[in-house]
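Course assignment 3, question 2. Fill in each field.
Student: A.L.
Task: Predict the tertiary structure for the chain below.
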Amino acid sequence: MIPKRIVIFTGGRLGPWALDFLTPDDLLIGADAGALFLVEHGLKPHIALGDFDSVTPAQLAYIRENSGETHDYDPIDKDYTDTELAWRLALSKKPQQIVMLGALGTRFDHSLANVHLLRMAQQQGIAASIVDEHNCIQLTTDQTKLFNSSYTYVSLLPLSEIVTGITLTGFQYPLQEASLEIGQSLGISNKLLLEDGQITIKQGMLLVIQSRD
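Answer field:
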């Protein structure tokens, strides 16, 4: 059975807020400490995976006891981070949507690498986002509709060298057929004026970041 939505919990910033994003039909994947977070909050990951170098042997035993499946990886002999392993597994199941929680944290290298994972989902036509208490990050190559929410700001940052044909409707600062080059901050801190807004681009990869302080 193809899951409608997969939610990945990984080892960055997590808290009680993350539990509010769950629905009963979600397929849950816990990566390393993300799996521990799930079981400690009374939730059973369908799949727990990683090298589990962020948990103690006792915690790993607890994860095994409370997960549907556990996939172990050698901490040395692996090509991907635990988060990317979880992401690739989620993609292989061809869901309609993937949401990743705990992908942002104090390690900027990991956070940035996790944002780059959105490109793989976009290439397969799978809606994907990275969410934490202050941010919701998506990637678009055509058009995206946003709705007014508790995230106050909307920022646009190119993931490709240049993004062309950017048109914004329903925003405080509209754009018409604009271009953004990587390294520019022109797209930072816009706001929706209405209940929803539309972002359309003609070419390139554009990160859409909804955020709040």
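Instructor remarks: The first strand starts at residue 5 and ends at 9. The helical segments are 33-40, 57-65, 82-92, 108-116, 118-123.
Grade: pending
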